Amino acid sequence: MIILVSPSKTQKENHKELWDKFEFSTPVFIKESLVVNKSLIKTIKEQNEFLLYEIFQVNEFSVNGKALLKDTIRNIEQFEISKQYPAIFYYYGLVFKEILGDKVTVNQINFLNQNLFIMSAYYGLVKPLDLIKNYRLMMESKVQIEGVRLVNYWKEHINFYLSKLNKTIINLSSKEYTQALDYKKLNIIDFDFLVNANGKIKSLPTHKKIARGKLINYLSQKNKLTLDVIKSFNVDGYKYDEEMSTESKIVFIKNQE
Fold it and tell me: Which family does the similarity line name (predicted)?
């Protein structure tokens, strides 16, 4: 089995006290990421500012919108010479905060590095201890890479690589990144985390993000990746729901407090 998870827009150095305990690596699709970077540089030169806000999903009218777009463009133009960071200690969204928790151990990080891939619109697939650079790019971006949409560019590379691994995919990525997966070529198990509010089943996006991270953290603490261990997940009141689950989808439900 292998776990897939989406990246986070928020990127920030964290858990720096652990960095010197690991040897870092290079993403498997580093050459392909340079192709993406080259295409983005071309896009920046050819498109007007209005379209760049759309391509990089920056709110032009937000307080920091102009500064964010400027930083995004600078990072692209200086991509090959900019600083690198270990992925697991740099993605800093809701999911990743839960993956690491308050106190993460060396053994947990090693488990994650062996069993987890982070999907990325810039790098394709990233292992936790791969070195990445600061970027802002979403898989659903309309930018063209070698004549095809970004998601289709990565779909070919990602599915070829994962199919060679010949492992069941524990898919904890978002819908945006799941678009890059080929269900005909891969054995994929999807997940849902639901809330029972007085008999009414709800799907709450923020709860889902947190639960994805907590499940990955739970597995890293157990140091084991099997269906039985996954189904035993019981953090924050979640319980495996056998009736709603299928062979290709595992559902957890918790009662709303």
Answer: Belongs to the UPF0246 family.
